[in-house]
Amino acid sequence: MNRRVLNKNRSGVHVSRIGKWLLAVVMVLWVPTLQAQTQELIDAYMDQWKDFYPSSAFGEGQKSAAWRFEDFSKQRVADWLLFNQQAEKTLMSIPESASLNERVDAQVLLRQVRLELELWEQDEPLTRQPQWYTGKISEALTYVLVSDRLSKAETYKAVLARVEGVSALCRLGIENIKNGNPARTKGALKSLERTIGFYEEKLPTEAIAWTQEDDLEGFLESVAQTTQQMRDLASHINDKVLPVASVPDKFGPEVYKRKLAIFSDNNVSPENLTVIALQEIDRVRELMLDLSGAWWDEEHKSADRPSGQALLDAALAAMEEDREDNRQDFLRVFKEATEESIDFVIEHELATVPANRNIIIDLLPSHSPFARIGGVFPPGPFDPDAKTLLYLPSIPDDAPEEEKDGFYRSFNNHFNRMIIAHELWPGHDMQFKVGLSQASKIRGLFSNQYYSEGWASFVEVVMLEAGWGDGNKLTRLAHLRKRLENATRAYISVMVHTQGWSKERVIEFASTRGLLPAQFAENLWNRVSGLYMSLQLTSYFVGYHGFDELWQEEQQRLGEDFVTRDFVDKVLATGSVPMSALREIVQQ
Predict the structure, then answer these.
(1) Contact between 241 and 185 (Cβ < 8 Å)
(2) Structural domain of residue 313, as residue ranges?
(3) Maximum pairwise Cα distance, the chain
């Protein structure tokens, strides 16, 4: 799309455009009616987003995007930036007289546009973020290799195109990366090293299953060339970037405030967030202590009950001891609990369940930079009937025993039951599947994290109140620990980026005040010191309380007419929207 062309409009006047994006905006501005104008812009934006981010587009269900890979050359980035600048102007002109749905869809898109402008205008990923390149490289094949939507021939075509795209991205990185954050640059090198190992050791073996014999030699040659390009990029980062790396690992107060305003739709400030997060930390610790006392009396009968932190430590230790100790049993427990959660939602009439209940559960590939975190990948708006992919956090079976012990204690069976409720049913998986079937595509494509993470955190309580976990107090304790973690994350996010907290201070606060396991406390620094993730970490806490407040408001408003299933159905049918808009929709 790096060409300049001439087009002729109906009046016969020649107009110049850069690619197709500026023309799309101009066409939007010509549309005569408000409703058509909004929808034309949304459609144009989604089309250009799919073209600019093909890996993400494939993840969201556009099959044809599988055999394309990102091209972040200078002209394409300039075109994309211009398109977003023009889209922001158009969205700002939509009046309050527009319908509620039009205003909400415009608000969803405006947030996305501003996030894009912040990334490309302020963050400078092409020149200052080696980890941005290595993240794209490490995930280039993930969706393609696990997809059941591609034939063998299509898989070969997609992998080959993406392998060649990775080579081009490596060359772009060598040409453009000038600086980086020291710690994240080192992390980028480790990620690249893992990806190189995958390309050399595992990809050739996997390729046999979907590559014709006559094509295999040429394919392996392409893989070898790309692997060399990754090594060249690693050398550039190590030799040219790391010695001069000086990008701060903290935004600073003003930048953080600006970014949080964009991310939260101006619904939260750093100052207010620290106050309510600290209050939540103290409140939840008290709840955990009370619950630990009830657990002790239930389990130990007449034994003398310890007090204070000793009591809480005893309950947490018992919770962590109920765990698996290897990858296969860990995977099995998750698969069994997933089936239980679906049956539980149906049996207890917590929601009108979607027809699509297909879920693939697997361990995250070890070369992924998110191997110790995991994540859920539900269907996207371009293929809403696709299967959900739940990638579990993982650790190699041959890892040091101390590391494995810490990992499985953190991901104990009680905690994992809350993960199922959060990530699958009635959390993210059901949330997205219902939203995709009933709400506009733009809400599914550009989900609001305060809605999505807030909902998934809140429904843990809905499940527990309905009897999830059979009333086991350690399972409820696992939820409270997650709730405490969410408040801790939000508080630390602000303190790192506005008060300059160090890694040591983060880990100390997270483990002592926030009661996080060692594995989670260490991971928290890695996440909160990142750019996007530091903002995303506030969404669990803020979103949870937004839903809790709405839940209570609706119970008070409706009284005896309040029905859990009706509330859940209405919330999920809106799709992912800002919390302020959700309240207006639910109560109309």
Answers:
(1) yes
(2) 261-324+402-586
(3) 92
CB atoms within 10 A of CB 21: 25
Arithmetic mean of pLDDT over the chain = 91
Q: Give ∠ CA 529-534-537 in degrees, rounded to 5.
A: 130
Whether pTM exceeds 0.85: yes
How sure is the predictor about 14, in pLDDT bands with cuts at 50, 70 and 90?
A: very low
- Looking at residue 373, what is its pLDDT? 67
- Give me 401's structure tokens: 């025993």
Residue 537 has pLDDT above 90, yes or no: yes
Do both 284 and 200 map to the same domain? no
State whether residue 17 is helix, strand or coil: strand
Instruction: Please check whether residue 350 is in contact with residue 382, taking contact to mean a CB–CB distance below 8 angstroms.
Output: no
How does strand 359-363 pair with strand 388-392? parallel
**433 plus 541 within the same structural domain:** yes
State the Cα–Cα distance between residues 259 and 273, nearest whole angstrom: 14
The domain total for the chain is: 2
* Residue 151 DSSP SS3: coil
Mean pLDDT of all residues in 521-532: 82
Question: Where would I find the H helices in 237-375?
Answer: 253-263, 270-300, 308-321, 327-347
Residues 524 and 508 in one domain: yes
**Per-residue exposure over 463-483, b if at least 16 CB sit within 10 Å of its own CB, e if not:** bbeeebbeebbbbbbbbbbbb
- Please state, in angstroms and as integers, the Cα–Cα distance from residue 44 to each residue in 22, 28, 106, 245, 507, following that order: 10, 8, 13, 39, 45
pLDDT band at 267 (very low <50, low <70, confident <90, very high): confident
211 CB-near residues (< 8 Å, 6+ apart) = 152, 156, 219
pLDDT at 2 over 50: no
Return the half-sphere exposure (C-beta side, CA atoms, 13 A cut-off) of residue 113. 23
Alpha helices (H) in 411-563, listed in sequence order: 413-423, 428-438, 441-445, 449-466, 473-499, 503-512, 518-528, 532-536, 539-558
